[in-house]
Amino acid sequence: MLIALPIHWIIIIDILAWLIIHMSVAYLTTQVPARFIHTEAWIYRERDWEKGGKIYEKVFKIRKWKDLLPDGAALFKKGFRKRSMTSVTKEYMQQFIVEVCRAELVHWIVILFSPLFFIWNYWWVGIIMILYALIANVPCILAQRYNRIRFRRILDKMAAS
User: Fold this and answer.
1) CA count, 13 A, side-chain hemisphere, 12
2) Residue 39: its pLDDT value, please?
3) CA 149 to CA 111: how far, in whole Å?
4) Domain that holds residue 64
5) 101 and 148 in contact (C-beta within 8 Å)?
6) How many domains does the chain have?
């Protein structure tokens, strides 16, 4: 702990810090024009271990819980809601892929902020904050990756027909 504070202030700062981090990263990322979201970038590429999305269904049982995740896009004017599809056109599918990439990026960035909590927390609380960041964001990342794989498969079928 670099900064010593009374415990009640630490708790308040932790709660406010997470709220500000989550909201700021999400808001700023919604402001990035779609042309800057490169859906083929390394971070978004499908990995062999994902087995075409089957890993998410078999190991993570994603279909049972992904609908329970909040859709943060609803909080922002420029947010793209991903809870349900509103079209089946090629353009919409491409936009959906961009938006799940954007959402995944938000969650990765939020996780990167977690070491900051070591500044004003005891080391063991800093570890709890990292665990919180992972527990709160990894399920969202998994859902975005799963959806992107599915939508790319649909786009490939559309292109083939």
Assistant:
1) 5
2) 95
3) 22
4) 7-33+50-160
5) yes
6) 1
Length of the chain: 161
Gap between the Cα atoms of 41 and 18, Å rounded = 28
Query: Which residue shows structure tokens 């819980």?
Result: 65
3-class SS letters over 95-132: HHHHHHHHHHHHHHHHHHCHHHHHCCCCHHHHHHHHHH
The closest of 128, 134, 140, 127 to 112, measured between CA atoms, is 134
The predicted-structure confidence for 24-34, as pLDDT tens digits, reads as follows 999 999 999 99
> Using CA atoms, how far apart are residues 47 and 44, in angstroms rounded to an integer?
9
**What is the distance between the alpha carbons of residues 75 and 26, in angstroms, rounded to a whole number?**
9
The reply to whether 129 falls in a domain is yes
Q: Which residues of 21-38 are buried (b: 16+ CB within 10 A; e: fewer)?
A: bbeebbbebbeeeeeebe
Axis-axis angle for helices 7-30, 123-160 (nearest 10): 20
Residue with tokens 């609803």: 74
pLDDT tens digits, 69-90: 988 777 776 667 666 667 778 8
Give the type of residue at 24. Answer: S
